[in-house]
Fold this sequence. Notes:
Elements: H1 3-23, H2 27-37, H3 43-68, H4 73-94, H5 103-119, H6 133-153, H7 158-168, H8 174-198, H9 204-228, H10 230-254
Helix pairs in contact: 1-2, 1-3, 1-9, 2-3, 3-8, 3-9, 4-6, 4-8, 5-10, 6-7, 6-8, 7-8
Amino acid sequence: METYIIVILCIASFCAGFVDAIVGGGGLIQTPITMIMLPGLSVANVIGTLKIPAFSGTSFAAYQYLKKVTMNWSLLVVMAVVSFAFAYLGSSLLTIVRSDFMKPVLLVVLIGIAFYTFKKKDFGAHKIKELSQMRVFFYAVLISMTIGFYDGFIGPGTGSFLVLAFVSLLGFDFLHASANAKMVNLATNFGSICLFISKGKIIWAIAIPMAVCNALGGFLGSKLAIKKGNSFIRHFFLIVVIIALLRFAYDVFFI
């Protein structure tokens, strides 16, 4: 493999780690670039390989959040277990069928998310009133099943969907949503990694240098998010959602 290809992939991975640490969506950067630079790889090989840098960057970001932000551990344990299992199932399905049929659905969902976030100026600015414990855990399991499977099967934008779920369904502000979402995202990535390792789908010569760069981006991005707070994260979230919308629109109408 040419050296310049690794360099480009590492730069993309650093940017992905930086963006993902703030509000998720790093896969929207490194996944299409990797597919362009390595057109001979199958979708399963690309997604499997990219799970390693994704896990690395999320780990470093999660560590920074752990030092500054309160985590809901009882909730996170449940979400981690469920999301691990469903990410494993999603990745299993990816090795059998293609995921392209989901893109039109995601396009509609992202349009709705972008419109709602833009119109509701105080969305995620502060925590809403406490929900009953039963309702919190019901939403948590539903989120973990849905987004866990999505991450294993498709992947890009998972972190942003998790942040949105924590804000809209569980009532977190953006900072706490980003922090707690990182812990769930670790579980989804790990579930997929276990499946892809067992299937031999990970190309380690690509995954390892990208993982180092993604970790550096995750470290810097999380520190910036903690420093800037909710307003900055909200605006960053809206930008990432719009980029995701454009990406899926391109896939649906031009590919």
